[in-house]
Amino acid sequence: MQPMDLELSVVNSIAEVSAAQWDACAGGHPFVQHAFLMALESSGIFSRERGVLPRYVLVKNADQDLVACAPAMLKWGTFREYGPERRWLSKGLQAGCFAWPKFQVGVPLFPVMGPKLLVREGFSEPPLQTVLLRGLNQLAQRADQKPVFNVMHINELTARHCHSQGALVAGEWHSMWTNTGHVDTTSYLASLPKRRRNQFQVDRRMANAHGLTFKVLHSHELTDELLADYYEGHHRVCERYGGQPWLPLSAYIAIVRAMPAETILMAYFDGPRYVAGTLNLHARAESTLYMLQWSELEKLNSVAVDLLCNRSIEYALEHGIAKIDSGLTAAHKEHRGWQNTPVFHAHWFYNDELKNLAKQQLARHAGQP
User: Fold this and answer.
1) Do 129 and 254 fall into the same domain?
2) Rounded mean pLDDT of 287-302?
3) What's the average model confidence in pLDDT over 317-338?
4) 118 DSSP assignment
5) Is the pLDDT of residue 13 over 50?
6) Is the separation of the CB atoms in 81 and 111 below 8 Å?
7) Domain residues for 25?
8) Are residues 195 and 279 part of one domain?
């Protein structure tokens, strides 16, 4: 297919796009499915005041079939999704060579690795990704846009393609667990070095000492009241580390209702009372479990690490899930055998001062998160 056969357009709402055609490009990844993006929109979180305005970029063929697309957006005033980029963004603001908004492709408000330059199944990816990138760069260079365009949280293959199209590529580390052929928890534990096997057992024993009940709940079991408790626990965790939740409760309710086949809550209860848990999305097409935010109404010794590091692995082993993506790295995950996996970001600059500043910052902090 030649580029002249294609038409590029932009819409401001995913509701303007056929769900079937968008999902034919999304490939089963939950964070870029039409229902997920629609849930974010319907929860009312997109506005200039909240720092996100979506811009869905579409590539259609002569028959008006969607053959490629990208979840793009204008972003204002937050560094929360960014890894090494936050350094040069901050320096650029100080130097006056960067100003909000920033034009980028990614999952709004979720720093999740996965496909961002989406191509319909059955079509060759590189040529259509090139068409998308050229169109996105043209959009980013409009007079009302700012001097940088990013594609966020991509894998190495996509990053290499972006580099071939002129991008400066940077990276950070996410914490992953991969099943290397174990059929159950027993065989997995037997394969661990003695120190890690003992740590697993200590974590479980200390978590069990609180007398709580562990449950795995699916979308139809997650009432609004339970989700409100989950959200309150998430809010308390954020406050403990000096922050605030990125999303309102309405966004979590909308996601759970829109993604019934994917949503899983792993949680500890004190009788009927929710205590702590993690909300997860199961990407069946990829055999991957994605952790969302951690939640804890009260801080109890070892409950957090048991849920985050151990219960999720047991669930994956019991259900034949090949991989878990738990987000950014942390010492407690590394100590328990989770692997540090590179995640990449691609940047195009239209301001030489900002480009040079970004190169300096990325070189200075190479290898750091």
Assistant:
1) no
2) 93
3) 90
4) E
5) yes
6) yes
7) 3-173+342-364
8) yes
The token duo for 308 is 């985050």
What's the mean pLDDT when you consider all of the chain? 91
* 345 closest CA partner among 83, 164, 39, 144: 83
Report CA torsion sign: 298, 301, 307, 309.
Answer: positive
Q: CA nearest 345: which of 84, 53, 69, 79? A: 84
The CATH number for 92's domain is: 3.40.630.30
CA–CA separation, 199 and 204 (whole Å):
9
> Alpha-carbon distance 66 to 165, whole Å?
23
Report residue 175 as tokens: 């914490």
Neighbours of 71 (CB within 10 A): 25
Residue 368 has pLDDT above 70, yes or no: no
Is 214 domain-assigned? yes
Query: Percent of the chain, pLDDT > 90?
Result: 75
* 65: phi then psi, degrees, rounded to nearest 5: -90, 135
| Residue of 52, 53, 34, 57 whose CA lies nearest to 133 | 57
Decide if 184 is inside a domain: yes
Q: Identify whether 254 is part of a domain.
A: yes
CA distance linking residue 344 with residue 154, whole number of Å? 5
Asked, for residue 329, whether it belongs to a domain, the answer is no
Tell me the C-alpha distance between 84 and 242, whole Å.
20
Measured CA to CA in angstroms, residue 41 lies from 6, 71, 74, 258, 282 at distances of 28, 12, 14, 12, 21
First to last CA, the chain: 40
Residue 176 carries which side chain, given as an amino acid letter? Answer: M
Residue 143 pLDDT > 70, yes or no?
A: no
